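Whether sequence alone determines local backbone shape is best considered at the level of individual chains. In the encoding step, the backbone of a single protein was reduced to a row of integers, each denoting a local shape. For completeness, the protein is quoted in full, as a sequence line and a line of structure tokens.
***
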Amino acid sequence: MSKRVLVTGVAGFIGSHMAEGLMKRGYQVTGMDDLSTGEKRNIPAGIRFVKGDVTRPADLKKAFSSALAGVFHIAGCASTIKAFDDPESDLRTNTMGTVAVVQACLGKKVPRLLYASSMTVYGHPEKLPVREDSPCRPVSYYGISKYAAERYVLATGARRDLGFSFGATAFRMFNVYGRRQSLTNPYQGVASIFIGNILRQEPVKIFGDGLQSRDFIHISDVVRAWILAFERKAAIGQALNLGTGMRISVKRLVDTDIRAFGLDPARYPVKFFPVRPGDQRHMQADIRRTRKILAWAPKMPFEKGMADVISWARDEASI
């Protein structure tokens, strides 16, 4: 069996870490990215890199030119707010791009596809922590496009007319953080946005009252879960929550970041703005299914993970 796998979005935060994790496990990695938001320096040395857009069949043909054991589909537009500004682009990349990747998998008889879905598919959950069998009623355009793509992936995996075994898994990703998350992109990664503000000595901007909460998971725990899912048949056909099962308020996140820089949260300027459309008030993952199926548990404590990111961010600022 081929040990080559494809990672889409390989120049991005999650994709670059995924490629590294796969290489450490002995896989040969092809990486694909259009470099619209990812950075070339994030691409791990030793992979086969294809510059391309997942919505373009000609680009996908290049990425799928080698026999693949699986595809880790991470590329996408990852911004709730930008999706409202440009819903066509969001739909084209997140949904149609995923459909194109699925079709490429079918054309080349790739046996496994793992897809980066999102906690936004749940909308405003009726109960926390939210379970995978909870209603999916996304309230943001981004959540709609991610859920539509998730259904394409899992519905294709459930087909029995393909002539080969096609195993699909979707991860409903909660708030992933870690090194290489952009410190300058105001639309992606609330943890890195705040760190960037403090590095540049800017006021921290909070949309809402700061009491809204999120489930923050470190990139190392995410990569480990994805690779376990790829290597376990029990993950096939599943939509799995990927978080820690803990909620942390935005205010606590900001205070943690400010203190890590040796500053006083009571004195640092924090500005509050109205809640933005599509924002979820509270999110917390029920990860019991993920724990059971993958024999996995998150290992990185929040404070330790944030300290590591801030250490990296300080080094970045000094370059």
User: Anything to note?
Assistant: The CA atoms of residues 227 and 288 lie 18 Å apart. The chain has a mean pLDDT of 95. The longest strand covers residues 112-118. The two ends are 43 Å apart (CA to CA).
